[in-house]
Amino acid sequence: MLDFITPISEVYSFNNFSMEEKTPIAKINLRGNLKNKEFTINVEKILGMSLPKEAGNTSVKEKITLLWLGPNEWLLVSNVEIAKETNIYELEQVLFDEISKTNLGAVTNVTDHFTIFSLTGSNVFEVLSKGCPYDFDSEDFLDNKVVQTILSNIDVTIHRKNKNEIDLYVRRSFADYLWNWLKDSSDLK
C-alpha cells in the first residue's frame, strides 16, 4: 500500500549544494537466491532487465532502477512519480504474485519505510564526508554505483548517479534529523 507520507516539504539550496525530497516514489524490496534460475529468470522477465549481481552495482531502465543491497537483496525504485491518489503499484503486485506467492523469494513494499533525498551540486561529497566514514574518492564508487553506510550516525543508502548528483535513502523516522544535519553541514565555512 502506498501512502506517500512526506516528512520534508521544503527545497534547500546553499553554496552550490541543493537538496529536495523525491516523492511520491515507489520502493520495493526484493529478496531471492541468484543461484535459483527460476527466481532470476522470472524477475528479469517481469522487469525486462538484468538483476545487478555484484556489490554496489545498479541496473537502470526508463521507469525503474534496481540497487544491489546484498547477495540476495535488491531495492527496486520507480524513476517516475506515482499518482498520490492510488494505493496500487502494478509492478509490485505482479512481482508479489510471481515471486512471493510461488515461494521463489520475497517482495515487500518499503515505500513508506524510506524517503529519498535528491542531492546535487559540485560539493555533494564534501558535505557527506563531514559525517560519513566512506571514502567517496574510492575507485569503486563510480557513477551509477550504490553503497550502504553511516551518515551522522544514521544508516543510509547512497546511489551515486554522477559526480554532482546522488539519491540518499534514509528511514522516514530519521528524515527530519538528517535533513537538518545536511542543511547545517552544507555551510562549508
Please outline what is shown here.
With 189 residues, the protein is of the alpha+beta class.
Number of helices: 4
Helix content: 10-25%
Q: What Rg is obtained from the alpha carbons, in whole angstroms? A: 17 Å
Task: Summarize the main sheet.
Answer: 6 strands, antiparallel
Output mean pLDDT. Answer: 90
Describe this structure in words.
The protein is α+β, with helices and mostly antiparallel strands and 189 residues long. It folds into 2 domains: 27-109, Heterotetrameric sarcosine oxidase (Alpha-Beta Plaits, 2-Layer Sandwich); 113-185, Gyrase A, domain 2 (2-Layer Sandwich). The protein has helices at 37-47, 90-100, 124-129, 172-185, and strands spanning 11-14, 17-22, 27-32, 58-60, 64-70, 73-78, 105-109, 114-120, 145-151, 154-162, 165-171. A 6-stranded antiparallel sheet has the order 1-2-8-11-10-9. It has a 5-stranded antiparallel sheet with strand order 4-5-6-3-7. Strand 9 and strand 10 (154-162) form a beta hairpin. The protein starts with 10 loop residues before the first strand and ends with a helix.
